[in-house]
Automatic annotation (TrEMBL), chain A:
Name under which the protein is recorded: Cytochrome aa3 subunit 2
UniProt organism field: Saccharococcus caldoxylosilyticus
Keyword match DNA-binding: no
Keyword Acyltransferase annotated: no
Residue span(s) of domain Cytochrome oxidase subunit II copper A binding: 55-156
Any one GO MF annotation of this record: cytochrome-c oxidase activity
Top-level division of the source organism's lineage: Bacteria
From TrEMBL, chain B:
UniProt key word Transmembrane: yes
Keyword Electron transport among UniProt keywords: yes
Protein name: Cytochrome c oxidase
Subcellular location: Membrane
Domain Cytochrome oxidase subunit I profile, chain residue ranges per copy: 14-480
GO cellular component, one term: membrane
Length: 156, 549
């Protein structure tokens, strides 16, 4: 199959860029640990209220400046939905759904994950700036989908 | 140039036109829904009579994402195959009609359950939201109908091969067959989740459904779906546009190779829609991200071929300088102008796609309105403008009429209107998405959140863009109605370009379906077997159905 010389140059350049891209993504994922939320832990979606840590949702201190934030997501609410976090805290957020699929997004941050019944999902974030962030559901879940909301306040 | 007088047989033309009519009816209704969505999201308008935003959105997604595309594509491909491989046998045409009616009845059934509010589950129908069984049944009929049409195409292709031993299949036929192979392989996934999981569950035969398995089967289908939309646009770019401008196909065999690469790399990649999900390990997500990025290769080949064709043509007309050839292109011809504008929009669209498929950046934009902005560039501009550009010769060719100068001018205006409207709508969707505004959401200030209030100006810009786009839809409907029923009678050419240097042997080698399908299946098995078994072995308790709308 004949290929024009310029096309060979173009494709070589393009494929080289492609491998640079993939290497950047791969290194930051596997070497630097910047993986997307991919928790494998399962849970019975009908027994969320009885299963720790979701039987007592909320913020729990787990170490020096380290916290766990456990949030139950259901149609159409986050529990809890008003959260205060001390500035500089490293927070591991665990979420699960009691009914359908939801999304967990903290607008203006990289906190963004799918919440699916039967699974726990998790992400860790250090809050370095004070301020107020909006929590919202970004996967359609029914008539009240756009009413699901909450606030994270990062305080001194 | 014996090609010029070749006409699609009248009986085949009727079959193709029937599909195209349904596609444009879907565009009219779906476009109205789109307009209403942008108005609602601006916060200045409420739907009357308690109609739900999500009913409208389900209508829009199903009619435009599934119905418009599938019907136009099958109609166009029937015409292209009949044009390049000869008139269908009565049997093939009969099955083509069976396919058409199966899809049409399916569409009507699904539309009924959506519009009566029994299926506000959006066009992705993620379980455990549970629609009325009729919704799933209707979709099944649409898919089954498309399979029947796919097999009719294969039978016709096989007959051509038998009658022309040792010859490479005509390029457009080859491409249509590739696209239908892609469609058949990928729809197996959605058929599996609908028939094995969702339909029995919605009928109450089983209580519970495995949510992650269902989503995974859906996305095994959902990504190749977008290539099923795109490849017919590429058929027009590769095999028709060169003829429209008066040039030649840059390379016939490289065009075939690009199509086969799309077949390989569009299916084993569904996880890039599931990057932020629990239950799938990061390793397998990354494997599929790597496979996803491989489509960059045929995309670059396509970009090269297009611009090489344009430049070679311009230079053959005496253009000089680095960009002098641009001036030689037929800017006043809507058959060229509309697809060309579509190509231009594909440049930012492709860049956006690379962002979406990258783990870490997807974290920022996943499920924000950025994504909606992205696919209104890809499918709702690049693909749709190319389809419009194709309809400007295909519809009059099939209806035995000609496009008047006035209609051509209107079509140029239509293209500009679409480009302007989409720049507003999609542009502001991209910006609002970067700020965090979610997709698939009716207007909300999220309890007067200062962040959400910042999104409102962008939502108003979306409504402005949506209104302009709706004017674009009215214009194209005027043009298509004219070309189908009112334009002067006459002969319109179905343009099919010839290769600059025919490479019969290389092209013939590409008719090797056993090999291509074998590689396709192997890649799918590599990408999916282990994570899929994991999903089933480590499954949580299943979910019962919810009707939360
Ligand atoms: C008048 C022109 C159009 C307008 C104003 C429009 C507007 C919109 C808006 C505002 C949304 C997002 C709503 C939301 O997420 O809440 C949307 C979604 C969508 N649009 Fe369009 N659109 C138009 C044309 C098209 C075309 C031509 C296509 C396809 C060929 C298309 C396919 C889709 C799809 C598949 C969705 C996703 C639905 C979902 O997320 O469930 N749109 N459209
Ligand atoms: Cu939700």
């Amino acid at each position: 199959m004949h290929m024009h010389k310029y096309e060979k140059i173009w494709l070589t350049f393009g494929i080289a860029c492609l491998f640079v891209f993939l290497t950047v993504i791969g290194v930051s994922a596997f070497a630097e640990g910047k993986q997307p939320p991919s928790c494998l832990t399962t849970i019975d979606p009908e027994k969320v209220d009885q299963t720790p840590p979701f039987n007592k949702p909320g913020l729990v201190k787990t170490g020096d400046n380290e916290y766990q934030l456990n949030i139950v997501v259901s149609a159409f609410a986050f529990t809890p939905n008003q959260i205060e976090i001390p500035k500089g805290a490293k927070v591991t957020i665990n979420v699960t759904s009691k009914d359908v699929i939801h999304g967990f997004e903290v607008a203006g941050t990289n906190i963004n994950m799918m919440v699916e019944p039967g699974y726990i999902n998790t992400i860790t974030k250090t809050f370095n700036q004070t301020g107020e962030y909006t929590i919202l559901c970004n996967e359609y879940c029914g008539a009240g989908h756009h009413m699901m909301t909450g606030r994270i306040k990062v305080v001194e | 140039m014996m090609n010029e007088t070749v006409k699609v047989d009248r009986r085949d033309a009727k079959l193709a036109l029937a599909h195209i009519y349904v596609a444009f009816i879907a565009l009219a209704l779906g476009g109205l829904a789109g307009l209403l969505q942008t108005l609602v999201r601006s916060g200045k308008f409420q739907l009357p009579a308690g109609i739900s935003y999500y009913t409208i959105l389900t209508t829009h997604g199903v009619l435009l994402g599934l119905v418009l595309t599938t019907f136009f594509i099958i109609g166009f491909q029937f015409a292209a195959v009949s044009r390049t491989s000869g008139t269908f046998s009565n049997r093939v045409r009969f099955w083509g009609w069976v396919g058409f009616w199966t899809m049409t009845i399916g569409t009507a059934t699904t539309a009924f359950f959506i519009l009566t509010g029994q299926a506000s589950v959006l066009y992705t129908f993620y379980a455990p939201l549970q629609a009325h069984a009729g919704f799933y049944l209707g979709l099944t009929l649409v898919v089954v109908g498309s399979w029947i049409s796919g097999f009719a195409t294969f039978v016709h292709y096989a007959r051509w091969k038998k009658e022309h031993p040792g010859k490479a299949s005509p390029l457009l036929t080859f491409m249509a067959v590739t696209n239908m192979v892609l469609w058949l392989v990928c729809t197996l996934g959605v058929a599996a989740t609908v028939l094995i999981q969702l339909l029995p569950w919605s009928l109450g035969i089983v209580d519970r459904v495995n949510v992650l398995v269902s989503r995974t089967l859906f996305w095994y289908f959902g990504h190749p779906l977008v290539y099923f939309w795109l490849l017919p646009a590429y058929m027009v770019w590769y095999a028709v546009i060169p003829k429209v401008i008066g040039g030649k196909i840059f390379s016939d065999s490289l065009a075939r190779l690009a199509f086969i690469l799309f077949l390989f790399f569009s299916i084993p990649v569904g996880f890039h829609h599931q990057l932020l999900e629990p239950g799938i390990t990061p390793f397998w997500k990354y494997v599929q991200v790597v496979l996803t990025f491989m489509v960059v290769i045929p995309s670059l080949m396509t970009a090269f071929a297009m611009f090489a064709t344009f430049e070679a043509y311009g230079r053959s007309k005496g253009a000089t300088g680095l960009f002098g050839w641009l001036r030689k292109l037929p800017w006043g011809d809507a058959r060229f102008f509309a697809p060309f504008v579509g190509m231009l929009f594909f440049i930012p669209a492709g860049a956006g796609g690379i962002i979406n498929a990258s783990h870490q950046m997807d974290q920022v934009v996943h499920n924000t309105i950025w994504v909606t902005g992205h696919f209104h560039l890809t499918v709702a501009t690049t693909v749709v403008l190319t389809f419009f550009g194709a309809a400007y010769w295909l519809v009059p060719h099939l209806s035995g009429r000609v496009m008047t100068k006035a209609m051509n001018r209107l079509a140029i205006i239509q293209t500009v209107v679409w480009a302007v409207g989409m720049s507003f709508m999609s542009g502001s969707m991209h910006f609002a998405g970067l700020l965090g505004a979610p997709r698939r959401s009716a207007f909300s200030t999220y309890g007067n959140s200062p962040q959400a209030l910042e999104w409102i100006p962008y939502q108003i810009a979306q409504a402005v863009g949506g209104t302009i786009l709706f004017i674009g839809i009215i214009l194209v409907l005027v043009i298509i109605t004219n070309l189908a029923f009112f334009a002067p009678k006459g002969e319109t050419e179905f343009p099919v370009a010839e290769a600059a240097e025919p490479q019969e042997r290389a092209a013939l080698a590409m008719d090797n379906w056993k090999l291509w399908i074998g590689i396709t299946i192997a890649l799918i098995l590599i990408a999916y077997t282990v994570p899929f078994i994991d999903m089933i072995q480590n499954a949580p308790p299943g979910s019962k159905g919810y009707k939360l709308w």
